[in-house]
Every structure is written in C-alpha cells, then in structure tokens.
Amino acid sequence: MSGHTEVGIAGLGVMGSAIARRLLRRGRAVRVYDIRPEAAAELAQDGATAAGSPARLAASGAVILSLNTADIVEEVVFGHDGVLSAAPDGVLVIDMSSIGPGPTRAFAERAAKLGAGWVDAPLSGGAPGAGRGELTLMLGGEEEHVERALPVLGALASRLTHLGPAGSGQLVKSVNQVLVGCGFAALAEAAALVRAAGLPPRQVLAALSGGRADSALLQEFFVKFADADLSPTGRVGNMVKDLEAARDYARSAGVPLPVTTAVAELHRWLTAAGHGNADNAALMHYYAPLEVRP
C-alpha cells in the first residue's frame, strides 16, 4: 500500500486478534481498536499500538474491520469519532466482517463521497487460517482499491478472488456460509449416528476419505463434532447472522432457500437454548444431552 506501512484494525475478537497477530509476525506495524480496552492492551503486549478511538486508526491509511454486524460497521466507520469522521480522504477501508451485500454497497458509496475507498473482503478459514496466512478471501470493490489492499491481504490469505464491485465479496461469502452451515448440519447428523453406534470417529473418517462424501469440511470438522469438541473455531450466533443475510438476499431476488431456512432455524434453537456463543460443534446438543469437551 503505497506510502503506508501501518495497518489499523477495528474489532479484536477471535478473528480480529488473529489477523492482527499475523500482520505483526509479518513485520507490519499495527494500530488496534476495540470497544474493550483490555483487548487492545493485550495486543499491545505483542507489539501493536492501541488506539483510543476508531478515528485514530485512520492515520494508518488502511483500516481492516472485523466486526459482527452491519450496524456496528456503520457506527465504527461513519459514527461520531468513527474511522472516516475526520480527514478521511485517501483512507482505504477493508471490511473483513460478514455482512450483507446491500449494506456493503451503501457503505462503499458513502465512503466514496468522503474520498475514501472500500473493499469488502469476507473470509473463509477462521482464526487458524488467519494465523497460517491461508485464508480464502472473496473481494468486492473498485479495481484500484483492491490493488491497494492486496499487499496487506496477501499476508493473510493463500487465495484471493476479486469478484466485482462492492458487495460482490459479501454475496459470495453468503454462498460460502450456505454451503458451510448446511454442511455442518449434515456433519452433526452423521456424527450423531456414529456416536449412537459407538464407532471410533477417526476410523469412520478414514473410511469416508477419498469417497464422494469426502471434503475439506469433513476432514477438518467430523472428528471435532463426533467428539463434541467445543474449542472455538466459529460461533453459532455468527452462523445465524450469516444464514439470515443469505436469506435476506434470497428473498429480495425471489430465490427459495428451504434447506438453508431449516438449518438457520436449527441454529436459532441453539441460540435460544443458550449456545449462541458456543462453537459450531454445539450442534451436537440437538441430538442428545452431551458431556462436551470445553
């Protein structure tokens, strides 16, 4: 990013923190902000600079967002003391949050009127992928803005695809989440069968590997689900948000999503049962009371 070696990051949850640490390890200066000062202080111990407000991230020239909802993105970027609240000309916002394509297009238009750029760069691969620099990123935005973002994003991802104007990345992320969310539901049902039969999950995985049921999702998550391992890789509540974003777009386009709707309701049940902050493997709670590994 011409003229800028520092990167700002707003949102220091599991994902934002993993992104920050990866960039620090790659030699980038990183300025961080979170509504929880202790989260920024923790990263400061790793070499980041804590910012007292989102506005103070703008000095970095490029600001990555890792936030939960479109409303939060709007407040952090355009609100009082937001990233683009003062002298925003030339600032590039790289939104790695998962929000709908509609709000993203609106945010990009607002940013352009202020002289700022916008790239939506939702991700697949989770915090482990960020830590290894092996994320898959789906990019939307103007060509010149995407080109400016690539030196930073290249440190985080092994696959980057520019799909079109602002909002295109978020739309493809919705497609990704439909496939992942429905895949998780199928994995949970398969794992429930394996648990009921008392079969060893790793041997079952070996038997399925290489066949038509094989996939990256199966390899990474089948044993985790069968073992009811709730170590954090992704939150149930975030999956509800992402599936609802897909359903919102589908309704606007007149596309029925019956399977996605059923899976979204399954995740809503988990949230209502108090598992919204749990890992996606909490789907196993649906099938039987579990002794889970924390």
Q: What is CATH's topology name of the largest domain?
A: Rossmann fold
So how many helices?
11
Percentage of residues assigned to helices: 40-55%
| The CATH homology group name of the largest domain | NAD(P)-binding Rossmann-like Domain
In round numbers, the mean pLDDT is 94
Radius of gyration: 20 Å
| Structural class category | alpha/beta
Strand order of the largest sheet: 3-2-1-4-5-6
The CATH class label of the largest domain is Alpha Beta
CATH architectural arrangement of the largest domain: 3-Layer(aba) Sandwich
Largest beta sheet, briefly?
Answer: 6 strands, parallel
Principal-axes shape call: globular
Number of DSSP strand runs:
9
- How many domains in all? 2
Kindly, what is the distance between the CA atoms of the first and last residues, rounded to a whole number of angstroms? 41 Å
Question: Low-confidence parts, pLDDT < 50 over ≥5 residues?
Answer: none
The fraction of residues in strands falls at 5-15%
Order of helices and strands: EHEHEEHEHEEHEHEHHHHH
Strand-helix topology:
Elements lengths: L5 E5 L3 H12 L3 E5 L3 H8 L4 E2 L11 E4 L4 H9 L13 E4 L5 H13 L3 E4 L2 E2 L1 H7 L2 E6 L2 H11 L3 E8 L3 H30 L3 H8 L7 H11 L9 H18 L4 H18 L19
Parallel strand pairs: 1-2, 1-4, 2-3, 4-5, 5-6, 8-9
Antiparallel strand pairs: 7-8
Helix pairs in contact: 1-5, 7-9, 7-10, 7-11, 10-11
Family: Belongs to the HIBADH-related family.
InterPro entries: 6-PGluconate_DH-like_C_sf, 6PGD_dom2, 6PGDH_NADP-bd, HIBADH-like_NADP-bd, HIBADH-related, NAD(P)-bd_dom_sf
Keywords: NAD, Oxidoreductase
